[in-house]
Each structure stands twice: as structure tokens, then as C-alpha cells.
């Protein structure tokens, strides 16, 4: 399966418990709008409203352009993954070298600002010995108890209230889940008690609180994948078409292992760009623009990579291809003609272009078709992308987990109009994937959108507890 790029969450199917908040829905959209001074940024063009079928939802208050940043969101609580704890900022999850001047014992901070903000609850956290909880979670592959631990430290230090997640929709918990939580709670409470906390400080820390927090984290936590951190994202970013409209591009994500045989400095070199810039792409661009096609640009980029020797012509063969109709193939012949023509006109010879026939092109397009994700170009220029790619050797996909308020109100769609990106830290950026009209509901995809209908339905039902009735699912796509 391809890596999950987007978020995991849940549709609020039931009436939310905190529906009183919704009578003044717009106040939940802006956080702080006490003053309307001209220096304040305008409120985001959204409001949280009740939907007919899915509880709360987020709606556009005016039209939104493709690629537009709709709003950002800071987490209510975040925690690095255990393997990233000495590599990313303890608070904002930004990639941070170990020798950071803000290193404190075992954790690192990216800046004085983060260290200062985390001071109160880090003081609480560092007093306790978490090794038993860590060992417990590691053997069971659990991540969410760390978010609960962080939240408990925040409550104890007084920076947040014990009820701060109550507004979020909880998952339904089974008796077995609750009994497992009792073990986790025991380890959590034990660590605090051993560090000298008294009963009064830990009053809130009972099974009702813990189970309530975990039930909310379970369906509202986002796995944070920094665009500039994940290896496969980098490759995808580098492979994404520079000509894509606005800041939204397309990319095919592949397994990192698949790149092992030829991942070297050459992969990040500008070799393929040299090939690409020699040719005149205006005919292909015009053709694609009038038809709204994006994938031929990925095929073009791939062809440049093959010609320059950084990848093989067969590199996508491991991906599952889509079934193509005769009409689709005949359209592809036109695209191929434009692609090959541009290379030929730039002086490439037949030998260099041997691979570039309709079988190759159709095979690539068939794979791109079901494996391409719309992605955000995190960097501002092609050079930035290459620099980012060259700077990273990390292959770990997820740097941590976080729970947000507003992003938790977004409902799911298998063909979403909005997505979430994390550029360099835990701050979530919600961006429009296409033009959105005033009044339209903004939806994100909780899962890997490239999966087929059955796989999506299965994952959404098991992981998030609902049956998806989005237009894409209804059309059996
Ligand atoms: Zn930080
Ligand atoms: Zn769907």
C-alpha cells in the first residue's frame, strides 16, 4: 500500500455533544476575534455548521481559489513519535539537529520560543520516569498514550484544562479497549506518583478522564508527516510538475525501498532538469491546459528522468495500473506524440527515445492514474525542492501525532476539495485543492485516496466507523 499522505479522522455522524457551540458557529472559526483592528488578519473564509447527515462540517463563506491557504491551525496537543523524539522539536515537531543549542537533556527544541512555551509542562514531564510507559507502548505499537501523557502534563502545569478536548467527537470504546486503557492509566499515574505528585494534583487523572481523552484522540489525531521530512514525499515533490497550476501539483508516491537501487546523489541532481529545459513544452502545455490534464506532466518529468539516467523506464512497474479503455489509449497517443515531438525537436535521437513508445506511455499513465495524489509544493521554487531533497536522508514518514480543534470539524470525502499539509512543523495548513464556491462544504480525505472503492470503504468503516457516501463512492470509482 502506498503511504498515507493525508490525515486520519472521523466524520461526526452523531449530533455533537457540544452543539451549543454551534449556535455561534463562526466564533469557533477564528479563535480570537476580540478586536477587529486593521492589523489583525481577516478571519478565514469558513464557518462551522451542522450538516444534515454528518454532524458538524466546515463550509466556505466565500469562494476560494485553488491552492489558496484557507487557514492554519495550531494543535491542542502534540507529541513526537518515539523514534523522532531526539530529532524533532519537543513542541512543534520541526526537524531539529541534535546539537541544537536549545537541547535540554533528552529532548530538543527548535527555538527559544518553543522552549519557553513548553517550559511549564516540560518541567512536569521531565521529573517523571517514562520508561515503563514507553516500553509498554513500544511492544504494543501504541502512540496515543503519549498524547494523553503530554496532555496530563499540560493539565498539571495549568496551561490547559482537563476538559479541553471535550468539544471533539469521541469514538465508541469497547469494554476491552477500556480495560487496556486501565493498564496505560496505571503506568501514567504511577510515573507521576513516583515523581512526587500528590493525589490532589492528580485528581483529574482517573479512568473516565483517560478513556474520554483516548476516545477523542483515537478519531481526531492526525499523523504528522512533514513535507520536508519524509523521503518519499521529497521524491514526490522533486518529481512533481513545476508547471502545475498555482501551488498544487501531482505526484506519484512510491515505496522508498523501490528507490534503493538508484538513490544516490544523482537522483537529486538537476540532470533531468537539464533534459527538460532543453525542450519546448508549449504544445504539450497548451494541449493539457485546454483539456484540464495534469498527468502528462508527470509522464514528461519521468521521461526526462529516464533520459538523464536517474531512473529506469520500468520504475513504476511495481505500481498497480488502471484499466484503460480504447478511447483513453487513443487520447494518450496524441499526448505521446506531443511529448516525443518536443524531445525530438530538442535534438534527442531515436536511441535515447527508444523507451518512449505507446506501451511505455500508456503503462505509466495507467499507473499514475490511480497512484497520483494531489500534493502541495512545500517549497517555493524548483531549486528549493532540490535543496530540500538533498538535505534530507531521513526515511521515517511520521514525526509525531497531534490533535487540532478546527481541522477536526472537517468531514471526509474520497475526492476532497481541501487538504492538510505540514510544511516544517506541527502547524497544520488547510489548502484548497480546487475552486470552492461560497456555501460549499470543505472536505478532506482521511485516508489514502488512491485506494479502490472497496479498500476505502473497508478502512473508513473499520478505522472511522462510517460508510462513505461521497459522490466518488456512489459512482463506484
Ligand atoms: Zn519548535
Ligand atoms: Zn467516498
TrEMBL record:
GO CC annotation, single: nucleus
CDD domains reported for this sequence: SET_SMYD (cd20071)
InterPro entries: H3K4_H4K5_MeTrfase, SET_dom, SET_dom_sf
Pfam families, per the entry: SET (PF00856)
Region described as Disordered: spans on this chain: 22-45
PANTHER family linked to this entry: HISTONE-LYSINE N-METHYLTRANSFERASE ATXR4, HISTONE-LYSINE N-METHYLTRANSFERASE SMYD
Protein name: SET domain-containing protein
Amino acid at each position: 500500500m502506498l503511504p498515507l499522505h493525508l490525515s486520519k479522522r472521523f466524520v461526526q455522524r452523531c449530533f455533537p455533544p457540544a452543539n451549543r457551540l454551534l449556535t455561534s458557529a463562526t466564533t469557533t472559526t477564528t479563535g480570537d476575534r476580540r478586536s477587529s483592528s486593521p492589523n489583525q488578519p481577516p478571519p478565514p473564509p469558513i464557518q462551522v455548521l451542522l450538516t444534515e447527515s454528518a454532524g458538524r462540517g466546515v463550509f466556505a463563506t466565500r469562494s476560494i481559489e485553488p491552492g489558496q491557504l484557507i487557514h492554519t491551525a495550531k494543535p491542542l496537543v502534540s507529541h513526537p513519535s518515539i523514534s523522532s523524539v531526539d530529532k524533532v522539536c519537543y513542541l512543534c515537531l520541526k526537524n531539529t539537529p541534535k546539537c541544537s543549542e536549545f537541547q535540554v537533556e533528552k529532548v530538543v527544541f527548535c527555538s527559544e520560543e518553543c522552549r519557553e512555551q513548553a517550559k511549564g509542562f516540560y518541567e512536569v514531564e521531565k521529573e517523571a520516569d517514562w520508561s515503563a510507559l514507553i516500553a509498554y507502548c513500544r511492544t504494543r505499537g501504541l502512540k496515543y498514550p503519549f498524547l494523553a501523557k503530554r496532555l496530563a502534563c499540560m493539565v498539571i502545569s495549568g496551561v490547559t484544562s482537563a476538559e479541553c478536548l471535550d468539544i471533539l467527537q469521541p469514538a465508541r470504546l469497547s469494554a476491552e479497549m477500556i480495560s487496556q486503557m486501565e493498564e496505560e492509566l496505571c503506568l501514567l499515574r504511577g510515573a507521576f506518583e513516583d515523581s512526587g505528585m500528590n493525589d490532589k494534583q492528580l485528581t483529574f487523572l482517573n479512568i473516565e478522564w483517560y478513556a474520554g481523552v483516548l476516545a477523542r484522540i483515537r478519531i481526531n489525531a492526525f499523523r504528522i508527516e512533514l513535507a520536508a521530512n519524509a523521503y518519499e514525499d521529497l521524491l514526490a515533490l522533486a518529481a512533481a510538475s513545476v508547471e502545475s497550476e498555482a501551488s498544487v501539483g501531482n505526484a506519484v508516491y512510491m515505496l522508498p525501498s523501490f528507490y534503493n537501487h538508484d538513490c544516490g546523489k544523482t537522483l537529486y541532481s538537476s540532470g533531468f532538469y537539464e533534459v527538460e529545459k532543453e525542450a519546448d513544452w508549449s504544445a504539450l502545455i497548451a494541449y493539457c491546459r485546454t483539456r484540464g490534464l495534469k498527468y502528462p506532466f508527470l509522464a514528461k518529468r519521468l521521461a526526462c528522468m529516464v533520459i538523464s539516467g536517474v531512473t529506469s523506464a520500468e520504475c513504476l512497474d511495481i505500481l498497480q495500473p488502471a484499466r484503460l479503455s480504447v478511447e483513453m489509449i487513443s487520447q494518450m497517443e496524441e499526448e505521446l506524440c506531443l511529448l516525443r515531438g518536443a524531445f525530438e525537436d530538442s535534438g534527442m535521437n531515436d536511441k535515447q527515445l527508444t523507451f518512449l513508445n505507446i506501451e511505455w506511455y500508456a503503462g505509466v499513465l495507467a499507473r499514475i492514474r490511480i497512484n497520483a495524489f494531489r500534493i502541495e509544493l512545500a517549497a517555493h521554487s524548483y531549486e528549493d525542492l532540490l535543496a530540500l531533497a538533498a538535505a534530507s536522508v531521513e526515511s521515517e514518514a511520521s514525526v509525531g501525532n497531534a490533535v487540532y480543534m478546527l481541522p477536526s470539524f472537517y468531514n471526509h470525502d474520497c475526492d476532497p476539495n481541501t487538504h492538510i499539509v505540514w510544511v516544517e512543523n506541527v502547524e497544520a495548513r488547510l489548502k484548497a485543492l480546487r475552486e470552492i464556491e461560497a456555501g460549499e462544504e470543505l472536505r478532506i480525505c482521511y485516508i489514502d485516496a488512491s485506494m479502490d472503492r472497496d479498500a476505502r470503504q473497508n478502512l473508513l468503516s473499520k478505522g472511522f466507523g462510517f460508510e462513505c457516501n461521497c459522490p466518488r463512492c456512489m459512482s463506484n470509482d
